[in-house]
Amino acid sequence: xxxxxxxxxxxxxxxxxxxxxxxxxxxxxxxxxxxxxxxxxxxxxxxxxxxxxxxxxxxxxxxxxxxxxxxxxxxxxxxxxxxxxxxxxxxxxxxxxxxxxxxxxxxxxxxxxxxxxxxxxxxxxxxxxxxxxxxxxxxxxxxxxxxxxxxxxxxxxxxxxxxxxxxxxxxxxxxxxxxxxxxxxxxxxxxxxxxxxxxxxxxxxxxxxxxxxxxxxxxxxxxxxxxxxxxxxxxxxxxxxxxxxxxxxxxxxxxxxxxxxxxxxxxxxxxxxxxxxxxxxxxxxxxxxxxxxxxxxxxxxxxxxxxxxxxxxxxxxxxxxxxxxxxxxxxxxxxxxxxxxxxxxxxxxxxxxxxxxxxxxxxxxxxxxxxxxxxx
Length: 376
Fold this sequence. Notes:
Blueprint: H1 8-23, H2 25-29, H3 38-72, H4 76-96, H5 109-113, H6 122-133, H7 141-144, H8 153-162, H9 164-172, H10 175-210, H11 222-249, H12 269-285, E1 287-288, E2 291-292, H13 305-323, H14 329-333, H15 338-364
């Protein structure tokens, strides 16, 4: 991996980490008792994730209620309020999104909640056809749930609420605006259903992970179950690098396109990444906002305080740098050095990925397995 940045703190920490890796090889290879993984599974899947799923369902419910009220009497202020509700729900989803396990991905549920990346512009084509025909079926949440994933979820609702043309139609309440509002309301109501299904199904999944062992039909060992947590952390960073940053970056400045970013219509592509990092760090740390306790995630398996401190400081460095950037790639690329800042951010995410592979994966004995993103 080629790093095009070298902040003094980051480089010093990287050196310390490298030394620890070289001196702790034998320790990293030592077997960890299977029972050591079980408290982490219980904490992350039960104590930490369950309240977040409750919060997501609550936020989508508020969004659906707000849309119904807006559609009954649309105006500019009401649209601002509904957009705020969208951002609140999307913030929570972006923290949950990288976990990618169990009910989150069962039956393609994650794609129904957020169909992205849409490499071939499927959603745009289908939405144009939808607006031409205005089929009543798409204003009914149940019938909508059986339609293409590209016409469901947050990205479809984003187009309804944030596209300038559609915003004007919504407020004007003309024929297109009335259909759009009813369609958007159906999307939000379907999101309530989807997130409610997550709430309902998660406890059974969490219990299967918690009781992993010879008698389990799902996970033969607690270590095998904990591997899903490591994969979430590792692949979550890979997705940020390859898709959320790599696609907009292109191969050179002239190839850059913010429109390939996630949630660019609502101008929150980098805001999404900031929330991804919050949810991903919870896998490592065990504390997620005001839920959980520090040091009870995968970090509980790391018995080197220096290694743990190095990882935390490097992660914080990336979060701090991201906080200094605007919320969207569109805004960032307008800056004279915006493209380079985006390249630097991608390099920093790649560096975190390296630390996860070497420090977390090696020390916890969970790394080196199957990666769903590499085509193996």
